[in-house]
Design goal:
- This protein is an alpha/beta fold.
- It has 3 domains: 177 residues, Thiamin diphosphate (ThDP)-binding fold, Pyr/PP domains (Rossmann fold, 3-Layer(aba) Sandwich); 149 residues, TPP-binding domain (Rossmann fold, 3-Layer(aba) Sandwich), CATH 3.40.50; 186 residues, Thiamin diphosphate (ThDP)-binding fold, Pyr/PP domains (Rossmann fold).
- Helices cover 39% and strands 16% of the residues.
- Helix 22 links the parallel strand 18 and strand 19.
- Helix 3 packs parallel to helix 4, helix 10 crosses helix 14 and helix 16 packs parallel to helix 22.
- Bound molecules: adenosine-5'-diphosphate, ligand TPW and magnesium ion.
């Protein structure tokens, strides 16, 4: 289109698409509708990948996990008010997890929203988003689009990564500008996540502390997995010989069968370590806040984190290292030349002894012959197949399905395990599955509680529509935690924790051309999982688990209110 001066014209949505493309943001996860439908079409037109979902929360989760995998902000596209709000849970979750993403949402007419005149899907979205994300911006003029996106990219990936909200008004998307001027505004953001090099004094202090330690421990968190400093973290762990504990999404940074892994001696090492080095792991509830009966009160702490305010947040940190993990680990490995760090041999021996004892206990559970299956003999079947397919992605959510799954399923490569994360969110499952399959171009196996799966289950249509190589195991114990609880009032309604134990989830995927299996024994799980992986076809395996074997809230039942009257 041309204007009256014969200049070629463009509009806000085209410029936005060009700006995304120029910044290498080549995949967009979303749900379309007024006012962003045409923008999604233009994305495909210029060669961006647009992945359409059934619900915005899953689109947002897909964007978030792709951000975690790549260090580039994942992009989620939503429509105004309800679509925006559906995506907001994923944006908040990404922010809490430290995953970089940008939720781009269309919004309705500002003048009508501002006067609260009841516009179609009218909501003051930017102000709603602010408390739930790292930063929120609105772009009102086409000449500001490139700058607006640059601000969003920098906010998402610099410092501690997180979610950013970017509001595009209907007026902006449709507003015309001459193409030549618009093109001049476009640019690629340079070094959006600049290095943050820690002070050498902080490195020295930490190494000195470690050199004096008798019972040192390294805890590796998902910030370390995100940082992609795999080689240096491995080198530091192996050169020092210090036992390490991976947090859930840091599993595989060093393989779970590594001789220095202390995962199977978690209780002992946390209780007894005299110096603990945290690499990209917060002392939040997942680590009992660094306090209480699980921790050695006299132990000293080293913490490597890019966020200065994280230091001393729950407990005094004796040697803070503020900087990016890649730079910090460079310096730490280099510093080994001048510091002699070696755990006492009886510390290593006691960790190994504890591991052996716990392996024996675990083996007894895994080798259970119970039918209906329990979590352990079912998970052993999954583990045996995954041990032969090491380089695939594993998504895991639920309560027992998550906690037992995390302990039983081994990971061998970095950034292959995606789960409920810092908030313990149900519903990340299918979004993560799709995000991982699209971004990583590898097979995905999801291990899902029957309740957890239900939160995003409709996305099996998305999985089938895009022909993704995904096998979903549904651990069907007929409930949230348990399927065997009674209705305490004796009425006909199922109890609050009950779901349908005889549900055939596998039939859901058949409706969309996928493959469904019903497994009642570990051998069947093994066979069907092998078939699912080999065929690369979208597959659901409904795994029948005894409704009575789950534990309330999995491993975190202690977080329930401690009421005097126990039901
Ligand atoms: P986990 O749940 O695995 O224990 P957390 O999400 O609690 O991990 O902690 C991750 C930490 O890693 C956050 O405090 C975050 O600021 C930090 N972090 C993320 N990326 C980097 C990085 N590149 N360099 C340094 N710290 C990082
Ligand atoms: C968004 C509360 C925690 S775990 C869980 C719920 C509903 C489901 C557990 O049942 P599942 O697993 O998945 O069948 P299993 O093996 O123990 O039976 N809403 C959100 N997030 C959370 N965490 C909840 C509710 C919850
Ligand atoms: Mg269940």
């Amino acid at each position: 289109m041309q204007n009256t001066q014969n200049q070629e014209m463009t509009d806000g949505m085209h410029i936005m698409v060009e700006a995304l493309k120029m910044n290498g943001l080549d995949t967009v996860f979303g749900v379309i509708g007024i006012p962003v439908t045409d923008m999604a079409r233009h994305m495909q037109e210029v060669g961006l990948r647009y992945i359409g979902f059934r619900h915005e929360q899953s689109a947002g989760n897909a964007a978030a996990i792709s951000g975690f995998m790549t260090q580039k902000p994942g992009i989620c596209l939503t429509v105004s008010a309800p679509g925006f709000l559906n995506g907001l849970t994923a944006l908040a979750t990404a922010t809490v997890n430290g995953f970089p993403m940008i939720q781009i949402s269309g919004s309705s007419e500002r003048p009508k929203i501002d006067l609260q005149q009841g516009d179609y899907e009218g909501l003051d979205q930017m102000n709603v988003a602010k408390p739930f994300c790292k930063a929120a911006y609105r772009i009102d003029r086409p000449e500001d689009i490139a700058i607006g996106l640059a601000r969003a990219i920098r906010a998402a990936v610099s410092g501690r990564p997180g979610g950013v909200y970017l509001d595009l008004t209907t007026a902006l998307l449709g507003s015309m500008i001459d193409k030549a001027s618009a093109t001049k505004t476009l640019f690629k953001v340079l070094e959006p996540a600049p290095k943050s090099i820690p002070a050498s004094t902080s490195i020295d202090r930490a190494l000195t502390l470690l050199a004096a330690a008798k019972k040192p421990l390294i805890i590796i968190g998902k910030g370390a997995a995100y940082a992609q400093a795999d080689a240096n973290i491995k080198a530091f762990v192996e050169k020092t010989g210090i036992p390490f504990l991976p947090m859930s999404m840091a599993k595989g940074l060093l393989p779970d069968d590594h001789p220095q892994s202390a995962a199977a001696a978690r209780g002992l090492v946390m209780k007894e370590a005299d110096v603990v080095m945290l690499i990209g792991a917060r002392l939040n509830w997942l680590l009992a806040h660094g306090k209480g009966k699980h921790w050695n009160p006299d132990g000293k702490l080293i913490q490597i984190d890019i966020e200065p305010q994280e230091i001393d947040s729950n407990r005094r940190i004796d040697a803070p290292i503020v900087g990016d993990i890649a730079s910090a680990m460079d310096a730490m490995v280099a510093g080994l030349g001048t510091h002699n760090i070696k755990p006492q041999s009886d510390w290593v021996d006691s960790v190994n002894k504890e591991k052996e004892q716990n392996f024996v206990k675990m083996d007894a559970k895994l080798n259970s012959t119970s039918i209906p299956m329990n979590y352990f003999n079912a998970l052993k079947a999954v583990r045996d197949v995954l041990d032969k397919n090491k380089d695939i992605y594993v998504v895991n959510e639920g309560a027992n399905t998550l906690d037992d799954g995390r302990n039983v399923i081994n990971m061998y490569y970095p950034r292959r395990r995606f789960d409920c994360g810092t908030w313990g969110v149900m519903g990340v499952g299918m979004g993560y599955v799709i995000g991982a399959a699209i971004t990583g171009k590898k097979q995905v196996v999801a291990i899902e509680g029957d309740s957890a799966f239900g939160f995003s289950g409709m996305e099996v249509e998305t999985i089938c529509r895009y022909h993704l190589p995904v096998t979903i195991l549904i651990f069907n114990n007929g409930g949230i935690y348990k399927g065997s609880d009674p209705n305490l009032g004796g009425g006909v309604d199922p109890s609050p924790t009950t779901l349908m134990a005889d549900a055939h989830y596998e039939k859901m995927i058949e409706a969309f051309g996928g493959v469904g299996y019903h497994a009642t024994t570990p051998d069947e799980i093994k066979k069907y999982l092998e078939q699912g992986i080999a065929s690369k076809k979208p597959t659901i395996i409904n795994c029948v688990i005894d409704p009575a074997v789950g534990t309330e809230s999995g491993h975190i039942g202690n977080l329930n209110p401690k009421s005097a009257v126990k039901v």
